[in-house]
Design a protein that fits this description.
This protein is of the alpha+beta class. It folds into three domains: 2-116, no CATH class; 149-257, 2-Layer Sandwich (Beta-Lactamase); 265-469, 2-Layer Sandwich (Nucleotidyltransferase, domain 5). It contains 15 helices and eleven strands.
Length: 470
């Protein structure tokens, strides 16, 4: 049972035991002395002596514990977190040897091990980089070829989740809603025609031609559903005329073939972190009071299978309906002129809600950002019932509650650089938070927190941090 407690808490309990034991021993010793003296008039003197001993002993043990906590327990906790960050998150900055100066040879030995690990990692990284460059070149060639084909194509898993989409398919999906990897096709297309076509595909094993209607009922598409051979799932080809992408334009090919495997039906808290989809977001506001201030910008990115999905971003200004104070504009650079014509919070909130559908919402100090969204949920006509993760609490779990947990401090510990021009912009801070999340996930996994429920259980131990922060 004690192994589940943090090192600092176990050390604190050890000193509590010392204090309790000292009080018991001194009390017993004085009682025996009083009994042998045989003089009832000495009772007050012995009681007074015990009080002095108790206060002195408690003060001494408390002082020693504070010194031990600051110079031994905290440095060990910090050193452990830094080693995990290097082992599992690719952090390469130097260890803080000054903070661990009272740990004898432990800190230099750990620094030597970290340096050796970094050298081995660098050699491996060079080999991986060479192979990655080759794969990137092959992917570019494939993407260019696909982009020249005047049809839109996507792959879906057997449970109709999007596994891959090309540039043209992104354009088709964007007519309905923001394209999202691992999203349900039912978010974009009516369910029955799609499931009927898939049932026919399964029965015949042959291509199926059908007409599908967008989920909003506004558009229809001539579609060919094609089996993937021995692989699960199917290919969906939109055979309507789709304009080719200009040669100078970006040609995204977004995919993760691991999504072809149908996930288990386990309860959400029992699902592995690696199987979850995260939407990491940040807001910029007119001020720091969620009950009266308003959102002026929302930025969000998606993390699937532990990786940030390139190209899947939400970045929108929001008309707050009230003047933006000059002091706030100085921080986030969003002015009254910039938000003119931007969507109001009801529309922007619905857009973000759809972008975050079926995902875990992640933010740095999430209660602050979510308070704005909850306040306007009726206007948006949505319910913010998503599971929530807070990177402030994740940082406390990974690095210890005694550390500083601002976004800048977390990024510095994890070797993440936030460009100065992007700091205090909604999308810039959302990207930085997503990078921090991606680096902390393997550290959590290495500490035995492999499911969403495991992580939530640990973060609840540090809830006081958010109360103090807000």
């Amino acid at each position: 049972m004690l192994t589940r407690l943090s090192l600092r808490l176990r050390i604190f309990l050890f000193f509590c035991l010392l204090a309790f034991g000292g009080l018991v021993i001194s009390s017993v010793a004085l009682w025996i002395s009083y009994a042998r003296a045989g003089d009832p008039d000495l009772a007050n003197a012995y009681i007074f002596a015990e009080i002095l001993i108790a206060f002195g002993l408690l003060a001494l043990i408390a002082g020693v514990w504070l010194l031990f906590d600051d110079n031994v327990a905290k440095p060990i906790e910090r050193l452990s977190a830094e080693l995990r960050a290097r082992a599992h998150a690719g952090v390469s900055s130097d260890l803080d040897l000054q903070a661990a100066r009272y740990l004898g040879d432990l800190a230099p030995a750990a620094a030597g091990l970290a340096e050796q690990l970094a050298e081995n990692a660098m050699q491996t990284a060079e080999a991986v980089a060479a192979e990655t460059a080759h794969l990137a070149f092959e992917k570019k060639r494939l993407t260019d070829l696909l982009s020249e084909i005047p049809v839109a194509m996507l792959l879906a898993s057997p449970n109709h989740q999007i596994v891959l989409y090309d540039a043209q398919a992104a354009g088709v999906l964007a007519q309905i809603a923001h394209p999202r990897l691992n999203a349900s096709l039912f978010d974009y297309l009516e369910r029955k025609p799609l499931t009927d076509a898939y049932a026919k595909l399964i029965k015949t094993g042959l291509d199926v031609y059908c007409t599908l209607t967008s989920a909003d009922g506004m558009q229809t598409y001539t579609v060919r559903m094609k089996p993937l051979g021995d692989a699960p799932g199917y290919m969906l080809i939109f055979e309507d005329s789709v304009a080719r992408i200009p040669p100078e334009a970006a040609r995204p090919l977004v995919y993760d073939f691991d999504l072809l495997e149908t996930p288990s039906d386990e309860a959400f808290e029992n699902r592995a972190l690696s199987d979850l989809c995260f939407v990491v977001f940040d807001t910029e506001t007119t001020g720091l009071l969620p009950h009266k201030d308003e959102i002026v910008q929302i930025g969000a990115v998606r993390v699937v299978k532990g990786k940030i999905v390139e190209g899947e971003q939400l970045n929108t200004l929001v008309d707050p309906g009230i003047p933006i104070p000059a002091a706030s504009t100085k921080v986030h650079k969003v002015s009254d002129q910039m938000v003119q014509g931007a969507p109001e919070i009801a529309q922007a909130g619905r857009m973000f809600h759809h972008f975050a559908r079926d995902a875990v919402i992640v933010a740095h100090n999430a209660p602050f950002d979510m308070a704005f969204l909850h306040r306007h949920s009726k206007r948006m006509d949505v319910e913010w019932s998503h599971p929530i993760l807070d990177t402030v609490l994740l940082s406390a779990v990974v690095f210890g509650a005694s550390e500083t947990h601002t976004l800048d401090a977390v990024c510095e510990r994890l070797g993440i650089t936030i460009p100065e021009t992007l700091r205090h912009t909604a999308l810039g801070d959302a990207v930085a938070t997503a990078e921090a999340l991606v680096k902390m996930l393997p550290i959590l996994n290495a500490r035995g927190m492999t499911t969403f429920g495991d992580v939530i259980k640990e973060t609840r131990k540090h809830g006081r941090l958010l109360e103090d922060l807000n």
